[in-house]
Amino acid sequence: MTTENVVEVRGLTKAYRGFEAVRGIDFDIRRGETFALLGPNGAGKSTTIEILEGYRDRTGGEVRVLGADPRHGGLAWKARLGIVLQSSGETGTATVREQLRHFAGYYPNPRDVEEVIAAVGLEEKAGTRISKLSGGQKRRVDVALGIVGRPELLFLDEPTTGFDPEARRQFWALIRSLRDEGTSILLTTHYLDEAQQLSDRGGIIAGGELVAIGAIDELGGADARIPIVRWLQDGVLRQERTTEPGALIARLAAGGEPERLEVIRPSLEDIYLELVGETAAAPALEGSPA
Amino acid sequence: MTATASVPTPSFGAARTVRLGLSRAGYELRSYFRQGDTVFFTFLFPLLMLTIFSVAFSDAEFGRTPDGDPVTAAQYYLPAMLAAGVLLSGLQNMATDIAMEKSDGTLKRLAGAPLSPVSYFIGKIGQVLVTGVLQAALLIVAARIAFDVPLPTEPAAWLTFAWVFLLGVTTCAILGIGLSGLPRSGKSATAVIIPIVLVLQFISGVYIQFSTLPEWLQSIANVFPLAWLAHGMRSVFLPDSYAALEAGGAWNLPGIAIVCGIWLVAGLVVTRLTFRWIRKDG
Fold first, then answer.
1. Distance in Å, alpha carbon of A187 to nearest chain B alpha carbon
2. What is the average pLDDT value for chain B, to the nearest integer?
């Protein structure tokens, strides 16, 4: 274990009344990187992130967040974290600006409140009570509260739920700028394009286990990225995975123009679904060569 | 692992805890007065009841002062409403407020922020103290101006008022923190807390003259702080001759200090032992 890792997780387990939500996972997050934790609902993502944040106690394993065990993280430790929870149902009577000013006061070296408001695109709503905002706008307040303390490590648990496409793009720009400033980020999201856009590395959790980990562009390994050539032959849809799709197509074309020919490069989403499908023991996924 | 050595160490000591507590108090007060329903049901409610009683019982007999002047309904009910205000501002407000904050995610957010629970409670108690003082002042001024209630002139009476009030507000606030764990959800908070508060008011001589209640009921009520607070307020605002109506025929100020003191200490211990920002494993 090195101090260059802001998060270190070894053999983490968590059981609720006999049910094993997390079954022994290992990963590190390096200082300055954005790490995406992906997986279906109930896979153990939120349990894992809440253990790292200090909200839940683990059943077993080792966890270090900014060098400390989250179970015993004190105020000084919390001051270095930013947390955007998956849900926050608060309907506060404070305005956006009042809420941010108040929370900024908790931190030793906070960001400028007006800059934070601008960064999340709420300038026009700065004087509005939070209870009067739309769902997406409230979510931006959550994000603003997460970054106002100038955290070293930022937890983002499904941050863009309820955002329209434009808001999501703005949010991506904000996260990139935080990353450029050196903030380490742990992100969970259901949007795989978001993970691909924002993160350096990622891990996929399914059934409480980490089924893949690595650079976001290499998740699932090289084999999972082998292109698929698909065509129609005698009314039957055929497909073949090959590292040399050109050669295959040339061979096919030699026997006449193949019908409905296409070359498919598996997207992160394809790879994700395949990995998650395997461990979820989905019955007989057709046409999934591995 | 030596990561902690490189961490800058800004102060997270007692001064910061108090400073953030005061900041919380300001924040809480602003929120309080922006919630129309709490302002009405906890802040203005005793004033409303005093007005209703004064008007409804304007012809009723509440005894006479030693000088032979009749004691009006407003004068008779002022101490009771002051005690009710302490209970509402302290216990009811605190219990429902924290129960709501538990369920709406406020406490979870605070748990993840570098805020000490002590600061949070300084904020809460600060809010209760300020609203309680404003409420009492409003009641007393309204009673004097609108209902012509004679007020005590001896400093000793006001001193009694001050300590009974402060002890009462603090005790009720601490008990409110304890009761905040009772409702299963924020939505049920008022439904669970208000009946407790209401029953306590009826058996403690707030709405019904305490001396007319059966003795066994008085004994039950005397286990709880409210009856003692009402007793203390009567000793301040009613003529001394009214002590004859009380149990033992005299004002029992040490009794107030003892009963409230026991509840206060017990409440503090229970709160210290049981309060968590969030239930860690739900």
1. 17
2. 90
